[in-house]
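Because showing beats explaining, we let one protein speak, sequence and backbone structure tokens together, and leave readers to judge.
___
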Amino acid sequence: MPDPGFGLYIHWPFCQAKCPYCDFNSHVWTDVDQDDWTKAYLREIDRIASETGDGLLRSVFFGGGTPSLMEGRTVERILDRVRRNWRMTNDVEITLEANPTSVEAGRFSAYRQAGVNRVSLGLQALNDEDLRRLGRLHSAAEGLAALDVARNVFDRVSFDLIYARQDQSVSAWQSELDRALSFDPDHLSLYQLTIEAGTAFGDRLNRGKLAGLPDEDRGASLWDVTQEATDKAGLPAYEVSNHAKPGEESRHNLIYWQGGDYAGIGPGAHGRLTLDGRRWATVSASHPRVWLQASRNGSAEDRSILSDSEIFQEKLLMGLRLSDGVVLSSQEEQHLLSNISYLGEIGLVSLDQGRLHLTRAGRPLLNAVLDRLLNG
């Protein structure tokens, strides 16, 4: 497997509102001093680069939160500092996540001039009722208008949809997905709605006030429809929830899934760095005020060395999400042999010349497969 390269993740934690399904580190603030925050990012970039500056940077990803609330000048200053600290690949991918409510043609043009060359747009649904249920602030029409703006400014645009929503029928999702595919996207992220503890949806579910979620059979049917429609449209799943035309896969996310190195900067950002022959897990302070103050004091990041066992577990957890699967060493293959044999017999995995991957039947059962491989 080729070297996945080195990536940089920059977390902008601020949103206009907190979506009820979201368990990301995001905060609703109205008084963000972007100059102060930019200086903090620049300090952290310099600090990380002092250890990793000899690496060849393959991707930069602005995630959140809502990075499209960043001023164009903020993005420009950050990317200028990144270029000063690292050499970049000729085809470096620089992605920024955006919400339709914060999409402005002028701001997008400023992002492009700063160096952003790919946008990931959070549409989430194409009808107003479901957008309201999901707590989104934009209408379906506003979402499609934002998509049109993005595609006029950037050569590479991805957008997200959430399915397995409340009271969503298989036929309704089929129609919505067909409409999404009619826009001829190069990349789609299609996520099944999951209810996470600590979210507003999680609290409602615990109180019995989140009706209409799909049962197991309808969830399986929704999954099948998704795979069939995207395959037919030439956007096969290269990862459990991500679909792309050949060559349009997210290079940044491939670094995660293929076990590459990446630095995480910003509140709650995680990273994986190989330094002096050891694999380090990094995590930054999650609360924005705490992170900002810590960055002034020298570092907003904690680190721990990953054991060989933890590295192997992450290799499976991340690599098996990909349709290509994961390459096992002969020792790793021998360690998992009995569990691989069992999962292979029931048609969930396949092992071919040391490469382990999920079958079509195994992909929607990823968590169960991982549990068997890691816990027997």
